[in-house]
Write a structure and sequence with these properties.
Elements: H1 7-11, H2 20-43, E1 47-50, H3 56-64, H4 69-72, E2 76-79, H5 80-84, H6 92-105, E3 113-119, H7 122-132, E4 138-145, H8 151-170, E5 175-179, E6 182-184, E7 187-189
Parallel strand pairs: 1-2, 3-4, 4-5
Antiparallel strand pairs: 6-7
Helix pairs in contact: 2-8, 6-7
Length: 190
């Protein structure tokens, strides 16, 4: 998963010792992800829906960002793949839709609902819109992270979203935010 951890980047370097710079970045990512999850939990129901196998989020956290584990233990992690791949073989988008609908069934669909989806693929962006149709009134806010981010890119995304998250939650309209630009020297590039 490339939303809370730059897993794609790390998986390419499994056999290598990480440089001190990357290790330092991982500590910063760990802190930024922890702050964002704690903020999200303080402001409402928080779930992690992943297309990774069950246990992968916890495993990769333990391996790369162990200080994040105590916070992850307070969040319900749903493996869309593990639960829905048997019913929908090869339909990755459908796994996410079904997992999001599972979350929806646990919430009160009659109250005005703020649905905020953060992720690095379009699957969760699509799934939250399907989920939103099940509520009588829902504000849908999507925050699309960059696919396959470097540690620096992920850190900047997490810090930016953490900094703006309360304003995103409080905004009384639908939002679509894309963080897919390349970051160079701390500034977004078109």
């Amino acid at each position: 998963d490339d939303t809370l951890l730059c897993t794609s980047f790390l998986n390419l370097r499994l056999e290598q010792t990480l440089s001190p710079v990357v290790e330092r970045r991982l500590r910063e990512i760990e802190n930024a992800a922890r702050r964002l999850l704690e903020l999200a939990m303080r402001l409402g129901h928080t779930f992690i829906v992943t297309n990774a196998m069950s246990g992968w989020v916890e495993y990769s956290s333990a391996k790369w960002v162990p200080e994040l584990l105590p916070v992850l233990q307070k969040v319900r992690v749903i493996s869309a793949r593990t639960k829905y791949e048997p019913q929908f073989p090869g339909e990755v988008g459908q796994w996410k839709v079904q997992a999001f609908l599972e979350v929806q069934r646990q919430l009160d669909s009659e109250i005005i609902t703020n649905l905020i989806s953060l992720g690095d693929s379009n699957f969760e962006m699509d799934a939250v819109h399907v989920m939103g149709k099940e509520f009588s009134q829902a504000l849908i806010k999507t925050i699309k992270f960059r696919e396959n981010p470097s540690p620096e890119e992920l850190l900047k995304q997490l810090e930016l979203v953490s900094h703006k998250f309360e304003r995103i939650v409080e905004n009384a309209r639908n939002l679509k935010i894309g963080l897919e630009r390349k970051w160079v020297s701390g500034a977004p590039q078109g």
